[in-house]
Specification:
It contains 2 helices and 2 strands. With 77 residues, the chain is of the alpha+beta class. The protein has one domain. The protein has a two-stranded antiparallel ribbon. The two termini are 15 Å apart.
Length: 77
């Protein structure tokens, strides 16, 4: 779990395979920025992962509840 210093929705850190780490953040932009600066960057530094390659994907979903979306993507995680 990636703590959220400004809101209630936490982020998630997982490593589905060695050398590949995924961090997810809530959709509220101000919370995401605060989490990146106050939680994610220090975690990445502590794990010595700041020298690696960063790739980012921004996914937009609409017309679905969070629980429906979670069920749909669960097999991919």
């Amino acid at each position: 779990v990636l703590p959220n210093p400004t809101g209630t929705a936490p982020g998630i850190i997982w490593t589905p395979q060695p050398g590949f780490t995924v961090l997810t953040f809530p959709g509220v932009p101000s919370e995401m920025r605060a989490m990146w600066q106050q939680t994610a960057v220090p975690w990445l530094q502590a794990q010595h992962l700041v020298a690696g390659t960063f790739r980012s994907r921004l996914l937009h979903f609409w017309g679905l509840s969070e629980s429906s979306l979670a069920e749909s993507v669960a097999p991919l995680l």
